[in-house]
Design goal:
This protein is mainly β. The chain contains two helices and 33 strands.
Length: 483
């Protein structure tokens, strides 16, 4: 992979040397994200359009104090038309805080230059059985069958700030009919799956939002450039927090916290086809200050980088690498997932990467662990720098921070039927890593000499002769570490 697309970072500003999606270059020193227009009008108060509110009655499933589902009768206000009218008048809408929620029964649509600003306490709810995203840009463009073409025009300069957003999810069985964050109820763009959905966009900002109890990705971005996602709080969230699909570049994700039962941050150049509207290279990102949840909340607390090779139904293949990514100031992430994982929802025989993916120039800086965590590397990597690692506990002599090599694990949907068991990873593929460095590792404040040999394991796969009596199956993949 050459350096023609490399972007220089200086204090979270961009100096771009490539043009993608017809978005144009930022001015010198331009801060990443939405660019405010000159003489912007104040946002219209949505309550000034209350005459457009629709009233309705329905039922919702909620957890009671004992963790059991109870049915509640609801009389609610649906604000879609009022919000769209406010946006049409001046390009920006403000949702003030109030004691009752704003319900939506379809996505709010934002055009280029538009802003949706909500008070931090304003709760926006998705009506049961809507099964769509809650807000999205206007011109989504899906590319399930082919790569994103050059020069595609994107929606630009969109902002979503504030609010508590929820699709009323209580796990898969209690999702109130809102399992998928689709772009629309009819003919949705394949692979769209967000509470906040921005796809085919340039210069966008999502900030100071709380995503509560939802089964779609909190913020789903794809085919995106020059984006800022910051101050994201996840509350009992059921899927990924910030999920980015390729092609994507020039992004800053910072200050992500809370309780997610999937990856708080997931960067997927290649991805499962049922949750990816597009595929392609991802590069020049900074992921800054991600905080894992307290141990008792049983969150997933993982950061994923998923490269691969997309094979379309036509047979055409597309390299989907991830390169030039900085992850810094990360606390209590249990697992950094740099590996190959076929589709477990549609079936690995139907949807898997055509080859092991490639990562390049990945930097992890200032990692803090108050409990065990691991960096699992089962993808090809050229350049993996890890520095300034702090363990506030004694990890013990057998502990390894970095595990390099192909992975094997068994999913047993029917525990008594081994014929139904499925391999989760790709244990027969080789993994090659070059340019690994591990520096400045401290355990309870004391610098550990020789951290590269002390905290790194390199392991081939081997077939398990006792499978299926014991699992996993194993494989023949090799781990190759090049100095």
């Amino acid at each position: 992979m050459g350096n023609a697309a490399v972007i220089g970072w200086r204090n979270a500003t961009l100096h771009a040397v490539v043009v993608m999606m017809g978005c144009g270059l930022p001015a010198s020193g331009q801060t990443i994200g939405r660019r405010p227009a000159a003489n912007e009008a104040p946002a219209a108060d949505v309550t000034d359009f209350a005459s457009l509110v629709r009233h309705g009655q329905w039922t919702e499933q909620w957890l009671d104090g004992k963790g059991q589902m109870e049915t509640r009768h609801v009389e609610g206000e649906i604000w879609n038309e009022a919000i769209q009218a406010a946006l049409a008048r001046g390009g920006a809408v403000h949702l003030p805080g109030r004691t009752t929620p704003y319900y939506l029964d379809s996505p709010v649509i934002l055009k280029s230059g538009q802003r949706l600003l909500a008070d931090p306490t304003a709760e926006i709810r998705l009506k049961p059985n809507t099964n769509t995203c809650m807000v999205r840009n206007e011109h989504l463009a899906g590319f399930a069958a082919a790569p994103v073409p050059d020069g595609l025009r994107a929606d630009e300069d969109i902002e979503i700030t504030g609010g508590v957003w929820t699709s009323l999810g209580n796990g898969v069985k209690g999702a109130n009919g809102n399992l998928h964050g689709l772009s629309a109820r009819r003919d949705p763009v394949p692979g769209t799956h967000g509470v906040i959905l921005l796809q085919n966009v340039c210069r966008v900002t999502v900030s100071h939002v709380t995503i509560r109890r939802s089964q779609a990705f909190a913020v789903h971005l794809g085919n995106v450039r020059e984006f800022l996602v910051e101050d994201i709080t996840l509350e009992n969230h059921g899927r990924d927090g910030v999920h980015v699909n390729g092609p994507a570049s020039d992004g800053l994700i910072r200050n992500v916290r809370g309780n997610s039962h999937d990856d708080p941050v997931s960067i997927c150049a290649w991805d499962w086809q049922n949750c990816a509207p597009s595929f392609g290279p991802v590069h020049d990102l900074t992921i800054d200050h991600v905080q894992g949840a307290p141990l008792e909340q049983n969150a997933t607390d993982a950061i994923r980088l998923l490269p691969g090779v997309k094979r379309f139904a036509s047979g055409v293949t597309l390299d989907c690498p991830i390169h030039d990514v900085v992850l810094r100031d990360i606390t209590d992430i249990r697992e950094f997932k740099f590996y190959d994982q076929p589709n477990m929802e549609l079936g690995r025989d139907r949807d898997s990467s055509a080859a092991t993916g490639w990562l390049g120039h990945i930097q992890l800086q200032h990692l803090t662990f108050t409990r065990p965590g691991v960096i699992k590397v089962a993808a090809n990597v050229d350049g993996l720098g890890i520095s300034d690692v702090n363990f506030t506990f004694d990890p013990g002599p057998a502990f390894k921070l970095v595990e390099i090599g192909p992975m094997s694990a068994t999913y047993r949907s029917k525990p008594a039927d081994p014929a139904s068991w499925v391999e989760i990873f790709s244990p027969d593929r080789d993994v090659k890593v070059s340019g690994l460095s591990l520096e400045k590792v401290r355990v309870q404040g004391l610098l550990v000499p020789g951290a590269g040999s002390r905290f790194v394991s390199v392991r081939d796969q081997h077939f398990n002769p006792d499978y299926p009596k014991t699992t996993p199956r194993g494989g023949i993949g090799r781990a190759i570490l090049v100095p």
